[in-house]
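Q: For a teaching session next week I want to show students how multiple molecules come together into a single three-dimensional assembly. I've collected the sequence lines for a complex. Could you give me the predicted structure tokens for the whole thing so I can convert them for display?
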Amino acid sequence: MKKGLKGLFSVIILSMILSACALDSSSTKDSSASDKKGNTESSSAKSTEVKEYKATNLEALPNKTKARKDTFIAGISAPGGVFLPYFYENGWDGNATDPMFAPLVNLDPTGKPVGILAEKWDVSSDLLTYTFHLRKGLKFSDGSPLTADDVAFTLTLLHDPAYAGEQDISLTAIKGGKEYKEGKVKSIEGIKVVDKETIEITTEEVNAKSLLILGGQVLSKAYYGKDYQFGKLDYLKELYPKPLGAGPYKFVKYVPGQEIRYVANEHYYAGTPKMKNLIFKVIDTSTSLQLFETGELDYAGFSADDDTVEQLKSLGFANLEVGPVNDYGFIYVNNSRPQFKDKAVRQALVYGLDRQKIVDVKFKGYGTVANVPVSKVSWAYNDEGINKYEFNAKKAKELLDQAGWKVGSDGIREKDGKKFVIRYLTRTADDPIIPIAKENYQDIGIKFEPEIMDFNAIVAKLGTKDYDFAAVSTSQILDPSDPVEEFATGNANNAAGYSNPKVDELIKKGLNTLDIEKRKVIYHDLYKELNDDPPVILIHYRQSAKAISGQIEGLHPDNFTGISASLPNISIKK
Amino acid sequence: MKQYVLQRFLQMIVILFGTSFIIFFLFAMLPGDYIDSNISLTPQRAQELKALYGLDQPVLQRYFTWLGNALHGDFGYSLKHQEKVLSLLNKYVWNSFFVAIFALVLTWSIALVSGVISAIKQYSWFDGFVTFFVFAAMSFPSFFISLLFIKWFGVDLQILPIGGMIDTGSDSTGLAHLLEVGKHMILPVTILTLLSIGSLTRYFRTGMLEVIRQDYIRTARAKGLKERVVIFKHALKNAILPAITLLAFELPGLFSGAIIMEQIFNWPGVGRIQLESVSFRDYPVLMAFTMFLSCLTIIGNFLADVTYAAVDPRIRLK
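A: Of course. Below is the structure for the complete assembly, covering every listed component.
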């Protein structure tokens, strides 16, 4: 799911710049259906977190909204105009291509895989071979047939050495993929087109995340592949502004910096969508509320706070949903520095920080303290047996004393002649962690020095492990392994410098099976271990508010695909 | 005169090269490049991508590659937009230009008239009012005043659009299109004018006050010339002479885009592209655009010097 990764990443950056995001796919619907499978999580606690407010007064709909009879308008932040999956460099373009390019497999509102263009798929017993069975009679939006050849072409294209996009196909370890990339062979051995509707893909490593990568959006071989030569992909640039896919909508026009227009695709496998026109309008978060209020938008997402929520409620014509976002915020701790090597010290640093206060200040009631490194919307979330590390300065002091950090004459702890000083990297001067951590850590004898720098600079420092503490937020979490993989010893992205053999083993096990029930158990064990020996300091889960115009029916934004999954089903209430 | 122009022109070329060198290295020194900022890549993949984009080469080599291409008119592909830099900038820069040129004309005309009148009627109620107004307008933060105007005219009165350049889904052409864009332009232009009018008005007022006190003005009055002739023929010409320099400095401003205004009004201008290119370390765009602005600044200076030399012989002689 390159779209997820890339999209999420830009979302982070953008939300850093703009402090919120509109059409991000990290939308926030916590479907209470996700709890019905009867797992151990406390579903009551969860469902209370999603608050829904129905429109009370449809008469109040703005005239502009009422005047729209066959058009749906959603906001988007900053699309760049590269309308080709796998090739765009901007997460918003990912959102913009979603309605036009359907994947074989997508995630349902609970984060479990569901067939879109694929009717079903089989995985061999050794979990290495995937067989996708396409639906019958699939067509691209120009009416040309979509077959297993197109799927094979898409996967081959991603193996081209000139491919410079975001998708890392090597993660799936398709048999013969490496040889193809190196130019040693003419075709990829592991990709086998069985018949027009069946494709068999053999991989060399078990990876729970392969299904979604292999079952990604399908590109037309006839359209995108007619000029394809090995090692030359520049011809595709001509086609970036002229997308052709098999999604519910087809492209009409892009007005740079203004809007993207689509029209319903009559060849869509599930039938022509009821809403004839779709427009993604470029908006800025500072005025998205005003745009929604005056009827310029039918759907918009906001970072939740009392003012925004009250304002949206008072409009009367909006269906409103306030719920958790599929990410979490944390502070990187540099485990490779001597003062943070000791598990007890890291525990003390969590105990000694009033995280509840940070969350209250930052989200004003629309956030909770995080103790499990996955979002509450994930099927893997389970906080049973998890130590909540409630704020406890006394305990923190004891742990530090035991670890050999003695209070010096100036009130700052020291060990082996070194003072305990934490340099904290953050992006904004109004980060509430600064004053709170400064006071809390001062109290337990640690000096806390904040430093403000831009996001790329922080990333560069994380990469070279040249930091003590650094505040970040995860990307949208599509698979529970996404945020924890990096804690494995030797993982190249292990910015925390963390190492724990038990964690290494559990991370590996978590990806070594495709059975969600089995994975749940593995991740629960992993979370308990990460809870006891914390690699980072988990801070918050946040919430967002989603407003949908009262006259729109059938739109259910979810935490994994945003609004794209429900686009084929929306209509205007008569 | 010819020699002076030639000399200044040669200087300009040298300065341009120097600027490109400094800018390139300053950007290269920013921590993190385009690939680094993507935390989800595996190191192998990141390395592959860096090689594909040429980011693994030494900075000096990258500079000369860039310079060589740039001299041939090839400014490369935007990493973020996957599109030729020139066509990308061409798409957005005119939107910024139109807002800026309207704001410039408005600002200069209003500032000139109000500055001169305040100077002639120093300490009158009009002078007091203008002074108060321009200082007030100048002191509002741009995002605040923009949002306030959006609330008043866009949400409460609903007479002006909240943002964007066209109505959503609009397919208007010709005159209807111009009117539509014009309507969307009112608020951004007004706000840019409000923000920049203050300093310029004060500038004209001071310039005029200084000139009015000169001996030759007293002489002109003593000759019995009409007050209007004294002010507009003798005083004004001399008072606005230094403004040539200011006007030359406006040249890059016409194309640079107003980042905050464009953001708030969703104006598809180049300011946004520029800001994005910095935060994503999109070097080709960053280089091309910064160089474009430096060129305009340097050319603006050049033009100012030449114009000065033309109107003021003292400068030529030095």
